Amino acid sequence: MGNALVIVNIGQLVTLAGPKRPRMGVELRDLGTVESAALLIVDGRIVAAGPNAELRNKIPPHAVLIDARGCCVTPGFVDAHTHLVFAGNRAAEFEQRIAGATYQQVAAAGGGILRTVHLTRAATKNELLTAARLHRDWMLRAGTTTLEAKSGYGLNHATEIKILRVLYRLNDEGPVRIVPTLLAAHTVPPEFALRREQYVRWIAEELIPEVAAAKLARYCDAFCDDHAFTVEEARAVLSAARRHGLGLRLHAEQFRPGTGAALAAELGASTADHLETAGPANLTQLRNAGVQPVLLPGSVFALGSTLYPPARAMLELGLAIVVATDFNPGSSPIMSMPFILSLSCLQMKLTPAEALTAATINAAWSLDLGNEIGSLEPGKQADFLLHEFTDYRDLAYFIAAPMRPRVFIAGREVTP
User: What is the rounded distance in angstroms from the CA atom of residue 224 to the CA atom of residue 160?
Assistant: First the structure.
């Protein structure tokens, strides 16, 4: 037997063992919890997870033992929607919004996404890499072991490719697994303000084929909204992405109904993200098409809004919801998945179990990684958190607590 690690005396082991698909409805409450448990890992993979008494005779003679001292162990968080790579920040806009300016007003005055685009275009690859490492480490400290990350702060060839290469480098160096997404259809850059059709055509006919051929992204996303791209423009981008073998994700229904949910269902996207204004008809379309909603309560909170996605209605319809941070410099400068769990419970009325499922195994399935990560089952990569508390509900209950779990990725403890 290879390198073995055993975590013993786990007071509460949340395995999330279950069906080999995303969890829906009441299934999100079934955490597969084992009391007085142990976890056996060999060569970075889970071999067994179960009661201490059952695993006692399976421990290899030269295994490294860690005593959990009765504390809780959960899968690592999977953050399925982030904007990890950018230059600078938008603290000045934070002040403007506090004074009453809306997100749309800030954008119309030259702020918003375009402010970050200006700074990111001017930054070197090494500067972006340094900043992104810091953002990643903030997330890792809070227990995020896998994350999706989008481009979208370049909006030209050089910078979009630069961002994707930074993501490639970060994933290659580890320890966090990073799933890259092309988001050149984030907003229309100033130089194309009067040539929108040309910009969309460039993304669809030139950038997407290049990115797909170089394997710089696994997914393609588009922001479908009044101040971003129309449904028809988003369809052109995502249809091209599908032709070139990229998975599809879509920012939809954030500020106004009719901005993308139906398109996500039509194209069979992996996810539709935001959905604050989605109505019953949209939700039914998403369910019937097998599209997973990615809910981003952090952006609602940070923008000072009160219109949260209808998470309970989604669960009642049988949608396999995901929760994520939407970490970005403007609308959600939030990198903590535990804080997102708290918001999900307090503002979207999820139970702590539902929120944890949405942040782990369901998020993993939304990235086509559900057979590899997201739960603590034999054969999967051993990405897990050894917490300082004994009950998983404390993740959501202690709001914005400075929790520092011991983080393990592929069976190796990592310290950011």
Answer: 19
